[in-house]
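S.,

Sequence below, as promised.
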Amino acid sequence: PSRNALRIAADPPWLAHCSPWNISFAGCGFRSVYYLGAVTSILERAAHLVYGASKICGASSGCLVAAALTVGLPIGEKARKHHLSIFHPTFSLQRTVRNSLQEKLPADAHRRASGRLCVSLTRMSDGSNVLVSHFDSREELIQVLMCSCFFPVYCGLIPPSYRGQLYMDGALSNNMPLLEHPNTITMAPFCSESDISPKDGAWTAISVHCNNLNIQVTAGNVRRIYTSFLPPAPEVRVAQPYLTLFYPKTDSHFFQCLIHNIVPKLDSMF
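The prediction came back faster than expected:
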């Protein structure tokens, strides 16, 4: 079917009868460009899946995607024009991330994000997980995002702070915020049990569960994890999201009902 045939009008009648749902993005380093293709496709075909979500969550690089969606940054336009900014493999980690956030976030970003964006942080003092959903200022929002993206040593030796405490990468304590909520739609760029994720050809019963993310042990995932830290050439990473397919993994009646009302068959999105 054509792209127009897959489009759904905003706020369809059945949406009012759905239970509230969340969307959660796993942290994945440079693999976050996977989300550009996935989110762009959803926004083009079923934007209410994103705009109707109660909370949009993220850990590490996943929180940047979540923040972009909650404050209204044009992810789809960026992907089509290849202006990937903080998602591009050539960015220089913390300093460039901060500069990009300072440039791109609107003045009222903290008000748009408060109550809807949920960011996973790991407290340095005891390693416990902290979920932040309210932001007093634009600068505080930027501080929280920087904390969630700080991978020790790889990003530097001095961790950023938020409200007087030091924090590090949220994926180190909770890589899938709000997973415990039954109506959370999970997304990860690894072959996993997440609702939306890539699929490897060979099935394996071996998986690793770490910090709320269950990843299958496959050759493809070994490569994906490796390129999370050492990304391939930019032109390869830019093109790859548009080759992504969607595979709903959950058996929940909620998610299957939601998908049934969005597109006739999820695999036909590409």
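The chain has one domain: 18-268.

Coffee later?
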